[in-house]
Amino acid sequence: MNSPVCKLLEQLIHLEKSNATPVYIQASQQIINAIQRGYLTEGTWLPGTRTFGELFNLNRNTVVAVYDELASQGWVEIIPNKGTCILVPEQKTAAIKATSQHIDQVNEYSKTTGFPFQPSFNLAPTEEQNKKKYSINDGQPDLRLHPTHQFSKWYSASMKRKTLISKWNQTALPSHSAFEIQLCNYLNATRGFHIKSHNLMSTRSIEMSLYIVSQLLLKPNDTVLVGDLSNYAANMIFQQSGANIKTIPIDDDGIDVDYIRKHFIKNAIRCIYVCAHRHYPTTRALSAERRLQLMQLAKDYQFAIIEDDFDYDFQFDGSAMLPMASSDANGVIIYLGKLGQSLFPSFQTGFVIAPENLISEAKNYLQILDRQGDLIQEQMLSELIYEGEIHRLIKKNIIIYKQRRDFLCECLTKNFKKGVYWGKPSGGLALWLRFEPKISLVKLAAQAQKHDLFLPKTILYQDKSTCCIRFGFGDLNEEEIETVVKKLKEAYSLMSNS
Q1: Where does the HTH gntR-type domain start and stop, copy by copy (predicted)?
Q2: Which fold has domain 134-143+402-497?
Q3: What are the phi and psi torsion angles at 486 (to 5°)?
Q4: Residue 293 predicted with pLDDT over 90
Q5: Three-state DSSP class for 397?
Q6: pLDDT for 429-457, tens place per residue?
Q7: Residue 496: which of 430, 443, 424, 429 has the closest Cα?
Q8: CATH architecture of 146-391
């Protein structure tokens, strides 16, 4: 018990039995860490399992598991009737950070660089820490509606496809994948397009799509037009490209096209960013008349329209208006969309639809950012589209989300007799709440926190003319909606009385 190895192990190994990581993994990681750092050298004999167990108050079976784990990775050799001897594998792997470290903390990695680099203010994270039981977001779907059991079977079946390995091993990928062909068929059927695979590029997300498009379109000081109170995530991407963002007024019919015609001249605008159905964050729809005016203006002024159709799948009342891109004969529209918003994020995919020459260049950028893609995801989504499962999932979830929208409106009406106003949107997963008379939304958020309700800054919109909240209801069930509205009312009442 007093051997030098035992004393060294006592200094090196610190086990936390309350830790989620199993004790035998903690111990083996810390021993590997000690070997890699040179504290335990090749040829050193580790204490016997009983001695090791007494040293750290461990069951002998746990110690056996520690040594077996080390042996399976090639760090020790277990010699029957003799003991366990440390080896140093010929192919050394990267150092494993042990669960607890004390004696070797002097070797921790540097927190700062030894060279200058350009930080990006525009890409500062917008997420906030939140430990409250209830929270409101900007309109995210409810992942609890994801058909987990069905997807586990579909995913497993996709992984077993014999063609999958051959696709991964291809040195040159085909110009158009089966997934892109299926996605084209789906978009042609649901959105009125007449596209082929060379008009489409699939990406990991709608944000990746917009980033690639901005790299193609924008140079420093180019002018990008966005609606007043626009999508902060899109603005971050435009600003990172060096563009100058100009805001355009929004009214009940959406973007004010006449304002653009009066205040800008031909060739002064590089592109305009619009939401296809409901403007983010106000949920106001772009009218058919404004759509025609905007498309004509884009042709006359020679600028691009980036049409973001992020919530096409969530149309509750009537039929969704077809995208402007479905009737674009002049090649002025770049259409961004999402597939699978009712699924777990790892099964969702973004896509870009545009003229063939732009898609060809965009895919060059995609090869740099995401050459491999996710073949299992694509295989599974292809089959879900072909078998009609995607369409069925959307239809089922639309019924649930519509009920939640209507219930939220009922709860707001019941709790707020005055002071808060909203319109019921025809779709989407958020309401635009307006406070009149105006209050401090920052103080409202602080009061809400006292009632275990979190209001992130990204849903608060306040300036001289605006005092509104984008209230996302998609990820809340009816019981949660009722509780959240009551807590919001309590916070609002305290604000009104103060």
Answers
A1: 21-89
A2: Aspartate Aminotransferase, domain 1 (3.90.1150)
A3: -65, -40
A4: yes
A5: helix
A6: 999 999 999 999 999 999 999 999 999 99
A7: 443
A8: 3-Layer(aba) Sandwich (3.40)
pLDDT of residue 99: 54
CA distance 92 to 94: 7
Which of 82, 16, 19, 20 lies closest to 49, judged by CA?
Answer: 82
* DSSP helix/strand/coil, 109: coil
| Residue 336: closest CA among 381, 290, 276 | 276
Q: What is the pLDDT of residue 172?
A: 54
Predicted confidence at residue 2, as pLDDT, reads 55
Q: Is 336 helix (H, G, I), strand (E, B) or coil?
A: strand
Long-range contacts of 295-298 (CB under 8 A, 24+ apart): 295/324, 295/327, 295/328, 295/330, 295/332, 295/333, 297/257, 297/260, 297/261, 298/272, 298/330, 298/332, 298/333
Distance of CA 409 to the CA centre of its chain: 28
394 vs 434: CA distance, rounded Å: 30
Q: Which fold has domain 4-107?
A: Arc Repressor Mutant, subunit A (1.10.10)
What's the rounded Cα separation, in Å, for the pair 406 and 404?
5
Q: Please count the CA atoms within 13 angstroms of the CA of 482 that sit on its side-chain side.
A: 3
Decide if 291 contacts 277 (C-beta within 8 A). Answer: no
Q: What is the pLDDT of residues 161-199, one digit of tens each?
A: 766 656 655 555 555 678 889 999 999 999 999 999 999
Q: What residues contact 495, with CB distance under 8 A and at least 6 apart?
A: 439, 440, 443, 444, 447
pTM score > 0.90 for this model? Answer: no
Cα–Cα distance measured from residue 99 to residue 12, given in angstroms and rounded to the nearest whole number:
11
Length of the chain counted residue by residue? 498
Give residues with Cβ within 8 angstroms of 436, minimum separation 6.
419, 420, 421, 467
Residues β-bridged to residue 274:
307
Least reliable range by pLDDT among 51-55, 345-349, 364-368, 386-390: 345-349
What is the rounded CA–CA span in Å between residue 467 and residue 439?
A: 7
